[in-house]
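Study the following:
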Amino acid sequence: MLLPVLFILALAQSGCSKNLEGDGSKTATPVNEVLTEISFWNPFGGGEGDFVEQIVQSFNASQKGIFVKQLRLESNEYYVKLSTALSSGKGPDVAVAHGDRISPFVKAKQIMPLDVLAVDAGFDFKEIDDSSVQNATFSGKPYAVPLDTHFHVLYYNKDILQKAGLLNVDDTPKLGEATPNGFIQLLKQIQAKVPDVQPFAVNTPYFQEPFLNLYYEAGGELLSSDKTKAAIHNDKALSVLKFYQQIYASHLADLNDKTPWDSFHNGKAALWFGGVWEAGHHLSEKTLPVGIMPLPPIFGSSVHWGSSHMLVVPTYVAQEKQRAAMTFMKYFSEVGGVTWGQAGHVPANRAVVQSAAYQQQPYHKLFIEAQRQVKFAPQTNKYSAIFTTLSEDLQSIVLGGLDPEAGLAALEKKLNDILAN
């Protein structure tokens, strides 16, 4: 989310894995009978990385013709290294990329269309969720295999809400009026009844994500419909910024909390807008009485930020390895998707989402419903620069105490400069 992801995390976000960094581990060297070895780059650390490791090992064990050797890179340096590899023509044979990051690679002809490879491998893009395929399609051709949609949900601590008198008999929260003022009154009630915790842990370190969630709820857009102008300097964005500033000023959230995902996980916060990829992490902590529900429509709708992990093949990859990469991507989608869904993501593969193995997992039916309200980033090859500027300027507004009106005006000017360049 702006990435409306990778835009992919923190555990707290967006794109995710922000606070569960990769360890740079590699799989073992293949045995001699392997015919084709392919390298697989990804930024998944922590719990997500463990699930990917399972998928890679399962694929390698399922046949003898292809061996996948994975390299897990730190998420904060992943795209720098991937961009360098694609530019130099030396790097992975298959790689993870967020949906909002692939447009520049397509424009530079650094990743290849997958329509022909998919047919040869027996992979049908019709088996993938329509919105995910659209997000991976340029000039009528798919350039990536979508793996998932990921987004944020509301995590809540049942014990804290119980003490505040805000828990229903069915363990759902009493959220009150779904308006900015109604949500603030809810937080003030928690503050009054349970003063030793944060009522609301806000992902201030990656503030673009909580901002985009509510800005999209309000009906906001980042760019004009023709993607030639910025559209961020408006009353909707101003209202969202003032809402968060009021929360910080009233000490309903700690502006200086550098790891809000841990604050919630350690029982020090009542509410938390966290990624679906955190579900397994939070639910596995037996001492954490956690509940999960969709983000409340505080600003009028249920539309919220989301992103997608995808698999791409660089254009420099030799033909034999292209076919091997497509075979692996097909396996990841169709077979590994069940394992990947255990990380909390909503798999892009329709059959996986409809399977009992996925739907019987806690809260996964809720995730499927919430996925339908996701708003992806605008499809532009300048999104990386837009996202960086958006993130930095929003940080300056909330942490630097800038006037939000002036801050939004300056932000829009910067974004227009990027679009005009």
